Amino acid sequence: MDFAGKVVLVTGGTRGIGLETVKLFAKNKAQVVLFGSKEETVKQALSKLQAENIEVEGYYPNLCNSNEVREVITKIKEKYGHIDVLINNAGISANKKIEDTSLEDFQKIMDINVTGMFNMCKEVVPIMKEQNGGVILNTSSMVSIYGQPSGVGYPASKFAVNGLTKSLARELAPFNIRVNAVAPGIIKTDMVASLPEEMIKPLVATIPLGRIGEPQDIANAFLFLASDMASYITGVILQVDGNAHN
Ligand code: NAD
After folding, report:
1. What domain range is 16 assigned to?
2. Ligand 1 pocket, 112 CB below 6 A?
3. Ligand 1 centre from 174 Cα, in Å?
4. What is the pLDDT of residues 5-58, one digit of tens each?
5. Which domain CATH number covers 38?
6. Residue 1 domain flag
7. What is the pLDDT of residues 174-198, one digit of tens each?
């Protein structure tokens, strides 16, 4: 795949699935711009990438603040003149029972996982319309298919991600903008490492492909969906989960 001359934005690009995605697009010659939540973690990610001879730019706007997002997107547009691929990957999870979940907990997860995505799309879409094309990819989750037994805010937010994906796909198709999501299963990242072992083990036991996914599995799906090989695919929630069942 050749992404030479393409500008690719990746939110949540400082670690896990996002960082692997940044690396894969950069290796395929894209100009990648990563977004993280803090200056410190963005700097760490950039120096990790530099050590692998990967040069990317990094920003850390509050994705829930529309003014901060607008400012950064304007800067990127001024610098490169175009934005070809937007990968909305930043996200947080939850696993508390509903009785232990405060309204603030619920609102926080909806804000980061859904409102942040909305803010990014709102700023990037006019640029993609003006250039008559682009690709938007969102990170959903297997919980948007199956739900999960606790932490209701997380699946609620990912069902919303699917809704946003399918609706924007229809709204933006006339402008040659494709919108798809990838719904990862259990992937070996910090987010999963923080879950209790008793939650992970029974899940793995039920995965037909018999293993936890790697960040690379998800990055590969993003690369395919962003490429011209997927030029007739829009509005899809692509499950990359070893056909997880739980
Ligand atoms: P991670 O915790 O390793 O990385 C999360 C990323 O999101 C980080 O780069 C972080 O900077 C960013 N982020 C978190 N809060 C933010 C905030 N307030 N503002 C801006 N950025 C913020 O997690 P991951 O597993 O790589 O998750 C990436 C995406 O994949 C998430 O959307 C997650 O819901 C989804 N996902 C992960 C799994 C899994 O098993 N790891 C499964 C399904 C879906």
Report:
1. 7-240
2. yes
3. 31
4. 999 999 999 999 999 999 999 999 999 999 999 999 999 999 999 999 999 999
5. 3.40.50.720
6. no
7. 999 999 999 999 999 986 777 788 8
The single residue listed with the structure tokens 């500008």 is: 7
Q: Indicate whether residue 10 lines ligand 1 (CB < 6 A).
A: no
Q: Quote the CA–CA distance of 35 and 37 in Å, as a whole number.
A: 7
pTM over 0.90? The answer is: yes
Which residue is associated with the tokens 């509005």? Answer: 235
Q: Is residue 95 part of a domain?
A: yes
Number of compact structural domains in the chain:
1
Helix axes 39-51, 16-27, angle to 10 degrees: 40
Mean pLDDT of the chain: 96
Which protein residue has the closest C-alpha to ligand 1 atom 12?
Answer: 12
Please check whether residue 246 lies inside any domain of the structure. Answer: no
Question: Is residue 117 included in any domain, yes or no?
Answer: yes
Helix H or strand E segment including 39: helix 39-51
**How many whole angstroms from 198 Cα to the centroid of ligand 1?**
21
Give mean pLDDT, residues 160-168.
Answer: 98
